[in-house]
Amino acid sequence: MSVRNKDLLQIYHILREELGPQYWWPAETAFEVVVGAMLTQQTKWSNVEKAICALREHGLLEPGTLAEADIALIEKLVRCCGFYCQKASRLKGVAAYFIEHPMDAVFSLPADTLRQRMLSLKGVGNETADSIVLYAAHKPSFVIDAYTTRIMKCMGVEGDYMRLKSLFESSLPVDVGIYQEYHALIVEYSKRFCGKKRCDECLLLRQDLCE
Ligand code: SF4
């Protein structure tokens, strides 16, 4: 059984119809998206929400204040996200980068160039870079995460990050809105179905999608 390219667009419509609009990424500013994308590595989103809330209360959701903040304070505020020493230090590093390189200028770069810039920052891997490009800069760069990888595996498609990213991007119109919504829908579907082991009700393993 394997998924065909055209099926990925069909799956998007199935998920959208089932789950409705997701309104991602939940953030008030582009820098908050960056912070959230860094913090969400290897932890639940509910922990990220707590950390973001704490950073906001301390006025640290701006590159200037975050870069200047005491590292011990940042560690305390992001402790709930795990790997807090590493994450605090990386957040300070990213904040310093955006002071030196104003966000508007960086985010006006073409998507591929911006992606490479983000990947050059400490602690930014493929998923974090794509999340920043897609949800903070609003440029087309499909995000692959563990949920996406699991769903694709169920559909008979395996491969590394870049292979799956390329498969989605070659199957979909180049549309920031669709990329943003699709990733959010995959996360929501995974929580509601995959995570709850509702495989017998799976909407994505229909015979007309897979062959
Ligand atoms: S619901 Fe089950 S079968 Fe369907 S994609 Fe998720 S893990 Fe795979």
TrEMBL record:
MF (Gene Ontology): 4 iron, 4 sulfur cluster binding; catalytic activity; metal ion binding
Entry keyword annotation includes Iron: yes
Gene Ontology biological-process annotations: base-excision repair
Superkingdom field: Archaea
Protein keywords: 4Fe-4S, Iron, Iron-sulfur, Metal-binding
InterPro entries: DNA_glycosylase (IPR011257), HhH-GPD_domain (IPR003265), HhH_base_excis_C (IPR023170)
Annotated HhH-GPD domain residues: 39-192
Chain ranges passing through the membrane: none
Pfam families referenced in this protein's UniProt entry, alphabetically: HhH-GPD
Name of the featured protein: HhH-GPD domain-containing protein
Protein's organism: Methanolobus chelungpuianus
Lineage of producing organism: Archaea, Methanobacteriati, Methanobacteriota, Stenosarchaea group, Methanomicrobia
